[in-house]
Amino acid sequence: MSFSHQWDKAYQNNTHMSVWPWSDLVSYTMRYAKPDKKDFKVLELGCGAGANIPFFLSLGVDYYAIEGSKSVIDMLKKKFSSIADKIVAGDFTKDIPFMEQFDLIVDRSSLTNNSTNSIKQCLTIVNGLLNKDGKFIGIDWFSILDSRLLDEKLEKIDSNSYKFAKGYFSNLGIVHFSDKEHLLDLFSKFKVEVMEHKVIKSEIPVGKTFALWNFVAKKI
Fold first, then answer.
1. Tens of pLDDT along 65-122?
2. How many whole angstroms from its chain centre is CA 156?
3. Contact assessment for residue 116 and residue 160, using Cβ atoms and an 8 Å cutoff
4. Which residues fall within 8 angstroms of residue 94, CB to CB, at 6 or more apart?
5. Which residue positions in the chain have pLDDT lower than 50?
6. pTM for the whole thing?
7. 5-219: which CATH number, 3.40.50.150, 2.60.40.350, 3.40.50.620, 1.20.1640.10?
8. Helix (H) or strand (E) holding 71
9. Spatial separation of the C-alpha atoms in residues 217 and 54, rounded to whole Å
């Protein structure tokens, strides 16, 4: 299984339409990728409604993106007409139709919405698209400590992947949860240079714990 068309419906319904760059992605890119050389090429997996596009364009990098939702890509091509030919609709777990080699590939909580096998397939493609010493930055990959995983109405897809019948993740296809060992296994063909585990517990109101992974993996 790969891209869920339920995400396309969510975008058509004007939900999950984040438009501000994600702060962790900004800080990780500047700290660990250092995109300051000429013709620095960036590929974003699952660009969604384009929240990170203005940030990357402001850096002057050569930006590309692939997103599963055709409706949101049609919108982005109009909004960012100067790079319309570099943002495409497609299933990045199966094929990424760019002939470029990239210095940086980024994903903010998109690839983690797939099954284990689909994630592995995508990472094989990613490895082939990265330049020597190119980096993959993953932001907000869901952790097994996230309390949303305790939802009683889950359909298990594989040992780390589920579909939700209610709550935040309902009607959004597959959601994948990782621990440190699982992430290291997924990125066994990379060198993981940085890994941070964010655990945020809600005290008022008492209840949810949000647990997420940020990491940097270099091609070897």
1. 999 999 999 999 999 999 999 999 999 999 999 999 999 999 999 999 999 999 999 9
2. 21
3. yes
4. 2, 121
5. 1, 4, 7, 11-12, 16-17
6. 0.91
7. 3.40.50.150
8. helix 70-79
9. 24
Question: Please, what is the Cα angle at 92 between 57 and 198, to 5 degrees?
Answer: 70
Yes or no: say if 52 and 44 are a contact pair by the CB < 8 Å rule: yes
Within 8 A by CB and 6+ apart from 90, the residues are 66, 67, 68, 96, 97
Contact 107, 46 (CB under 8 A): yes
64-80 confidence digits (pLDDT tens):
999 999 999 999 999 99
Which tokens sit at 119? 């994630």
**DSSP code per residue over 124-181:** HHHHHHEEEEEEEEEEEEEBTT-GGGG-SSEEEEETTEEEESSSTTTTS-EEE-B-HH
Q: Give the model's pLDDT for residue 7.
A: 46
Q: Which residue has the tokens 């990170």?
A: 52
